[in-house]
């Protein structure tokens, strides 16, 4: 082929980018485009945008970073807004390419887009080639066909660790990336306002902020491994709640593909050789296997990812009570550990893994409210939203996914006392509770009026009354 258009989707990077690499080998001229999908900014059933301002900002930053990198190569990133099946088809025609190279996606809306694009280009003699690249293990290297994927994570992990190999990441060597034709407008990056979103000022309570882009992703990788050696204690710190260093914070970069999981894996292997290999360095790769597991499971079960009855097909008697749901969503349940986590999410677009497990369990198991709403709320708010990880994890916590432990229940009070024993996290996000002793903070309804007055807590005024009475007796 002489000319190829690379359509970037959730793979906003130049390094280890298989469609880009393949295009550069096969074509004399390669152009790179991204279509900001209008459907991603539509409102969902909760009447909130599917993509909120935190993630949209991260996306725009990632596109700008790519654009600047491609400009250094004498080219540019072509940016369009709308439906990829229309915009990418139009662009392919204008550039008179013979092929479109892109990543393979697996979920409903993305597949529908692929199908529509194929239809639009089929009569024009333009071919489309898909490349699998979102996971650590390539789908073709799994020791079983996806339809036989184990339903239990440990079985999956043991099998891939024993029988499969991770492919080496591809370096970026610029070849055949062509300048844009003179009369072709590269396209402006929209503002958040143009996407129908409001710019959110950085919360003064945020302990870190994310900036999108491949350059930032590689910086974070370098920081987390080589500059700080934080990876060497990851297993001990990963369940903490406050600050930028207790976990890798790779998730938004992975979700947008600003970094590839293979690139992280290769760097960890190098770190293990040159500095230290321990259970923490292993554990980071272990977590990336969870990410793979959710993606392959979504591939195996298709649209069941979005079914209320989940992969298991389990019928749940859950309510759609919008009053309690919105109290949960806004962090106004009167349960400090839940509210602190939800307020972090609302103020920053991020929440720790420990926090996510607890707020999800609380919504489903304590409030008996539908998990689908929780997943939709997360989809809108999370800066690192990933369709398979989000919906898969929600199913897992709700008990309709691939959890071998029937009826997993997170006891919120025990969890709070275990993972936030000094109540630093709660006090950080709920300043109204700052004078309450850590031992009492998860038991506000047991405090006398005198004690509440002494600590400056006015229930129903500066802190909400609890919407449910939690007991500490159930297992955590
Ligand atoms: C209800 C719920 C919803 C979630 N939604 C998302 C989501 O939309 N996007 C997302 O990336 N993660 C999601 N997670 C998983 C996990 O909470 C985040 O990946 C993690 O908190 C991100 O922070 P980190 O990068 O510092 O993680 P680290 O602890 O540093 O882990 C490293 C990487 O491993 C992967 N990982 C770790 N835990 C998981 C997991 N349980 N499932 C899948 N991958 C994992 C992520 O890619 C992460 O970046 C969800 C978890 C729950 C319980």
Automatic annotation (TrEMBL):
<dbReference type="GO" id="GO:0000719">
    <property type="term" value="P:photoreactive repair"/>
</dbReference>
<dbReference type="InterPro" id="IPR014133">
    <property type="entry name" value="Cry_DASH"/>
</dbReference>
<dbReference type="Pfam" id="PF03441">
    <property type="entry name" value="FAD_binding_7"/>
</dbReference>
<feature type="binding site">
    <location>
        <position position="234"/>
    </location>
    <ligand>
        <name>FAD</name>
    </ligand>
</feature>
<dbReference type="GO" id="GO:0003677">
    <property type="term" value="F:DNA binding"/>
</dbReference>
<keyword id="KW-0274">FAD</keyword>
<feature type="domain" description="Photolyase/cryptochrome alpha/beta">
    <location>
        <begin position="2"/>
        <end position="136"/>
    </location>
</feature>
<dbReference type="InterPro" id="IPR036134">
    <property type="entry name" value="Crypto/Photolyase_FAD-like_sf"/>
</dbReference>
<feature type="binding site">
    <location>
        <begin position="247"/>
        <end position="251"/>
    </location>
    <ligand>
        <name>FAD</name>
    </ligand>
</feature>
<comment type="similarity">
    <text>Belongs to the DNA photolyase class-1 family.</text>
</comment>
<keyword id="KW-0285">Flavoprotein</keyword>
<dbReference type="GO" id="GO:0003904">
    <property type="term" value="F:deoxyribodipyrimidine photo-lyase activity"/>
</dbReference>
<protein>
    <recommendedName>
        <fullName>Cryptochrome DASH</fullName>
    </recommendedName>
</protein>
<keyword id="KW-0157">Chromophore</keyword>
<feature type="binding site">
    <location>
        <begin position="384"/>
        <end position="386"/>
    </location>
    <ligand>
        <name>FAD</name>
    </ligand>
</feature>
<dbReference type="InterPro" id="IPR006050">
    <property type="entry name" value="DNA_photolyase_N"/>
</dbReference>
<dbReference type="Pfam" id="PF00875">
    <property type="entry name" value="DNA_photolyase"/>
</dbReference>
<feature type="binding site">
    <location>
        <begin position="287"/>
        <end position="294"/>
    </location>
    <ligand>
        <name>FAD</name>
    </ligand>
</feature>
<dbReference type="InterPro" id="IPR036155">
    <property type="entry name" value="Crypto/Photolyase_N_sf"/>
</dbReference>
<dbReference type="InterPro" id="IPR005101">
    <property type="entry name" value="Cryptochr/Photolyase_FAD-bd"/>
</dbReference>
<dbReference type="InterPro" id="IPR002081">
    <property type="entry name" value="Cryptochrome/DNA_photolyase_1"/>
</dbReference>
<comment type="function">
    <text>May have a photoreceptor function.</text>
</comment>
<dbReference type="InterPro" id="IPR014729">
    <property type="entry name" value="Rossmann-like_a/b/a_fold"/>
</dbReference>
<dbReference type="GO" id="GO:0071949">
    <property type="term" value="F:FAD binding"/>
</dbReference>
């Amino acid at each position: 082929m002489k000319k190829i258009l690379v359509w970037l989707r959730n793979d906003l990077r130049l390094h280890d980018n298989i469609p880009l690499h393949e295009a550069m080998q096969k074509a004399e001229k390669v152009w790179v485009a991204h279509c900001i999908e209008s459907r991603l900014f539509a409102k969902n059933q909760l009447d909130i945008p599917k993509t909120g301002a935190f993630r949209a900002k991260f996306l725009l930053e990632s596109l700008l970073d790519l654009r600047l990198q491609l400009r250094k190569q004498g080219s540019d990133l072509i940016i369009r807004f709308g439906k990829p099946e229309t915009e990418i088809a139009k662009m392919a025609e204008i550039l008179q390419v013979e092929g479109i190279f892109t990543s393979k996606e697996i979920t409903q809306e993305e597949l529908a887009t692929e199908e529509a694009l194929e239809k639009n280009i089929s009569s024009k003699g333009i071919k489309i080639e898909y490349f699998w690249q979102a996971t650590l293990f390539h789908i073709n290297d799994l020791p079983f066909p996806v339809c036989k994927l184990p339903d239990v994570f440990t079985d999956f992990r043991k099998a891939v660790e024993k029988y499969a190999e991770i492919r080496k990441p591809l370096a970026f060597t610029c070849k055949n990336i062509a300048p844009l034709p003179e009369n072709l407008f590269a396209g402006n990056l929209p503002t958040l306002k143009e996407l129908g979103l409001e710019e959110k000022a950085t919360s003064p309570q945020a302990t870190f902020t994310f900036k999108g882009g491949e350059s930032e992703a590689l910086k974070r990788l370098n920081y987390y491994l080589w500059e700080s050696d934080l990876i060497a204690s990851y297993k001990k710190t990963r369940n903490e709640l406050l600050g930028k260093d207790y976990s890798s914070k790779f998730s938004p970069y992975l979700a947008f593909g600003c970094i590839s999981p293979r690139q992280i894996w290769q760097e960890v292997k190098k770190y293990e050789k040159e500095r230290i290999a321990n259970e923490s360095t292993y554990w980071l790769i272990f977590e990336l296997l969870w990410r793979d597991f959710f993606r392959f499971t979504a591939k195996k079960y298709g649209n069941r990812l979005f079914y209320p009855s989940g992969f298991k097909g389990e019928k749940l008697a859950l309510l759609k009570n919008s009053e309690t749901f919105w109290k949960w969503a806004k962090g106004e349940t009167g349960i400090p550990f839940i509210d602190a986590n939800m307020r972090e999410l609302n103020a920053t677009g991020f929440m720790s893994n420990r926090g996510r497990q607890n707020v999800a369990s609380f919504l489903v198991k304590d409030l008996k409210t539908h998990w689908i709403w929780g997943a939709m709320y997360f989809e809108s708010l999370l800066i690192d939203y990933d369709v398979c990880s989000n919906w898969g994890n929600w199913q897992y916590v709700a008990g309709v996914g691939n959890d071998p432990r029937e009826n997993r229940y997170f006891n919120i009070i025990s969890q709070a006392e275990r993972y936030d024993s000094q109540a630093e996290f709660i006090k950080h996000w709920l300043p109204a509770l700052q004078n309450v002793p850590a031992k009492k903070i998860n038991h506000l309804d047991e405090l006398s009026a005198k004690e509440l007055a002494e600590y400056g807590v006015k229930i129903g005024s500066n802190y909400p009354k609890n919407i449910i009475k939690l007991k500490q007796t159930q297992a955590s």
